[in-house]
Design goal:
Elements: E1 7-9, E2 12-14, E3 17-19, H1 29-37, E4 41-45, H2 68-94, E5 99-105, H3 111-121, E6 128-132, H4 139-145, E7 149-154, H5 157-166, E8 178-181, E9 188-190, H6 204-217, E10 225-228, E11 249-253, H7 267-274, E12 281-284, E13 292-296, H8 299-309, E14 312-315, E15 324-327, E16 333-336, H9 341-349, E17 354-357, E18 362-366, H10 368-379, E19 393-394, E20 398-399, H11 411-418, H12 452-460
Parallel strand pairs: 3-11, 4-5, 5-6, 6-7, 7-8, 8-10, 10-11
Antiparallel strand pairs: 1-2, 9-13, 12-13, 14-16, 14-18, 15-16, 17-18, 19-20
The chain binds flavin mononucleotide and iron/sulfur cluster.
Length: 463
C-alpha cells in the first residue's frame, strides 16, 4: 500500500481522506469533528441538521404553521440553527485539527439562504462547502464571499466545464477541489445524465483522466479531484495514487463511516448495514427530486418497486388501443389496453383498490392505508425541495403545474424519521453499492463497531 501524502485542502495540509456529507443526520458535528481530529476532512450535513435545547437535547423538528410557505420558513430557520450547532460541535471535537466541511443539497429550496445564514453565524468554524444534486452555479460566489472553499460535486468532466464557464471562472481562488461522484456506485442521489445508462456502469479511471485533462486545460493543475462512490479499501485504488494522469487526488467515503462509534445513525440502521448482501442496493428513480438514487432494498423500497411494476398506461377516452374500461371512482372511468386488464384486476383483488394517476398518463395501484398516508404526507409538506414531484410544491411558483406523482415519496419525512431512530424497514435507507462489504470485512467481525480513529488507521493501511 502506497503511503498517503498530505495535500492542501481548504487551506491546510491534511490527509486526503474525507467523510462525505450525508443528510438527514447521516453525518453531523460528531462524525465530522472526529474525522477532522485525525487530520482528515469531516463533512456534516446541512440538510435539516439537529439543533439543541439549553440542556443539550436534540430539538425534534415540529411545524406549527398552517400555510406551507410558512412551514417552509420554519424549516429554513431550523436548518440555519442546526447548521451552526453542528459546526460548533465539529469544531470542538476536531480540536482545531483537520478541516470541517458542510454539505448542502443544491435542490433544497432556499439552499443559498440556508448556507448564507450558517456561514454568517459560524465564521471560522467551516472551512469548505460541498454541494451536489443539481448544478450549483452560485456556490462559487457565495462561498468566496465568506472566504470559504467550495467543492462542487459532479459526475462528469462536462458538468464541471459548464459550471466553470458559466460561473466559477470568476471565483477561481476559493475553488478547493472537485468531487467526482461515481453515478453508478455512490450512496444517496446519483448524477446520472440522460446520456448514461444506469445498467451499464463505466469504470471511473477514464472519466477521472478526462476530468483531470479538463482541469489542466483550465489552468487548475493543482486543484485536487476528490473521488467518491465505491471507495472502501484504498488497496483497490493504488493505481489512482501518485498517478500523473489523475493528479492530486483525495478519497471520499460515504457509506463506510456510517458504521463507526461516532456515526449518528441508529444502532438498528447500523445492524441492517452490517448484513446487507451484494445486489441489495438498488439504483432507482423514485426520489421526488427526479434524480436517480441508491438505497438498500427494504420494505419501503420494495413497496415502491412493486407499485412501479404494477403501473398501467391509460387514455381518458376509449380508442382502438385503449379499449378496456377501468373505473377510478363513481365519476371517472379511464381506458387501458385489454392486455393490461389482468394486471389491473390482480392488483385490485390483492387489496390495492386505490387507483391513482401519475403525471405520465399511467395509473398505479395502492392500498387504502397507503393512499391515506400519502395524502397525509402531502398535506404535511414543509416545502423542503425547490421542486417536488411527490407533492408538486415549487418554491418559485407554488406548484409545478403537474400532477402529484404517487410513484414517489416525501423524502424529508422519511430521511428525517430514519435519521432520528425511526423504522429501518419503512423508511428509505440510502447506501452505496459497496455496503455489502461490511458483512465480510474483518474490521466488523462479530458486530464490532470501530471508532473513526480505528477506521482511519485501517484505511491508511489499505485495509
Ligand atoms: C445515507 C447517505 C446519505 C447521503 N446524503 C448525501 C447528501 O445529503 N448530500 C450529498 O452531497 N451526498 C450525500 N451522500 C453521498 C456521500 O456524501 C458520498 O459522496 C457517497 O456516499 C460516496 O459513495 P459511497 O457510499 O460508495 O462511499 C449520501 C450518502 C449516503 C450513504
Ligand atoms: S412533499 Fe416534497 S417538498 Fe414537501 S417536504 Fe416532502 S419531499 Fe419536501
Amino acid at each position: 500500500m502506497k503511503t498517503l501524502k498530505p495535500i492542501l485542502i481548504s487551506g491546510k495540509e491534511v490527509l486526503p481522506l474525507i467523510e462525505g456529507g450525508k443528510g438527514i443526520n447521516g453525518s453531523d458535528g460528531r462524525s465530522s469533528g472526529a474525522w477532522a481530529a485525525e487530520n482528515c476532512v469531516g463533512t456534516f450535513s446541512g440538510v435539516s441538521p439537529d439543533c439543541y435545547d439549553s440542556f443539550g437535547n436534540v430539538i425534534i423538528e415540529k411545524f406549527f404553521k398552517k400555510d406551507r410557505k410558512e412551514r417552509h420558513e420554519e424549516m429554513v430557520e431550523y436548518a440555519i440553527k442546526g447548521g451552526v450547532a453542528q459546526a460548533q460541535v465539529a469544531h470542538e471535537i476536531s480540536n482545531g485539527n483537520g478541516r470541517i466541511h458542510m454539505n448542502m443539497l443544491w435542490e433544497l429550496a432556499d439552499s443559498e439562504r440556508i448556507l448564507t445564514g450558517v456561514l454568517e453565524r459560524a465564521k471560522g468554524l467551516i472551512h469548505g462547502v460541498t454541494c451536489g444534486a443539481g448544478l450549483p452555479y452560485h456556490l462559487g460566489a457565495l462561498a468566496s464571499k465568506f472566504g470559504v472553499y467550495y467543492y462542487p460535486i459532479i459526475s462528469s468532466a462536462r458538468a464541471f466545464q459548464i459550471l466553470w464557464k458559466r460561473a466559477y471562472a470568476n471565483f477561481r481562488e476559493y475553488l478547493g477541489g472537485v468531487v467526482y461522484e461515481d453515478p453508478w456506485l455512490a450512496g444517496g442521489h446519483n448524477g446520472l445524465s440522460n446520456a448514461e445508462d444506469p445498467t451499464k456502469p463505466q469504470t471511473p479511471y477514464q472519466r477521472l483522466v478526462e476530468l483531470r485533462t479538463t482541469l489542466n486545460n483550465l489552468g487548475l493543475n493543482e486543484t485536487p479531484i476528490i473521488l467518491a462512490g465505491g471507495v472502501w479499501s484504498l488497496s483497490d485504488w493504488q493505481d489512482y495514487i501518485d498517478n500523473p494522469e489523475i493528479g492530486k487526488i483525495a478519497f471520499q467515503f460515504g457509506t463506510r463511516p456510517m458504521i463507526t462509534k461516532e456515526s449518528p445513525i441508529s444502532e438498528a440502521w447500523k445492524k441492517v448495514m452490517l448484513h446487507v448482501k451484494k445486489g441489495d442496493v438498488i439504483l432507482q428513480k423514485f426520489s421526488p427530486t427526479g434524480f436517480f438514487s441508491s438505497a438498500i432494498k427494504n420494505t419501503f423500497l420494495e413497496k415502491l418497486i412493486e407499485r412501479n411494476n404494477g403501473e398501467v398506461a391509460f387514455a381518458s377516452e376509449p380508442n382502438n388501443e385503449f379499449s378496456h374500461a377501468l373505473k377510478l371512482s363513481e365519476s371517472k372511468t379511464i381506458y387501458i389496453r385489454p392486455e393490461d386488464a389482468e394486471k389491473a384486476n390482480r392488483q385490485i383483488n390483492a387489496g390495492l383498490t386505490e387507483i391513482k394517476e401519475t403525471p405520465d398518463n399511467t395509473v398505479v395501484f395502492m392500498t387504502p392505508e397507503d393512499w391515506k398516508q400519502m395524502k397525509a404526507d402531502r398535506a404535511a409538506c414543509v416545502g423542503c425541495l425547490s421542486q417536488c414531484q411527490f407533492s408538486t410544491w415549487s418554491k418559485a411558483n407554488g406548484t409545478t403545474g403537474r400532477l402529484p406523482d404517487p410513484r414517489s415519496y416525501c423524502i424529508h419525512k422519511t430521511l428525517y424519521e430514519v435519521g432520528h431512530g425511526g423504522s429501518v424497514k419503512d423508511n428509505l435507507l440510502f447506501a452505496g453499492h459497496q455496503v455489502y462489504r461490511f458483512a465480510t470485512d474483518p474490521l466488523y467481525r462479530n458486530g464490532c463497531i470501530p471508532s473513526v480513529k480505528e477506521l482511519i488507521e485501517k484505511i491508511k493501511k489499505g485495509e
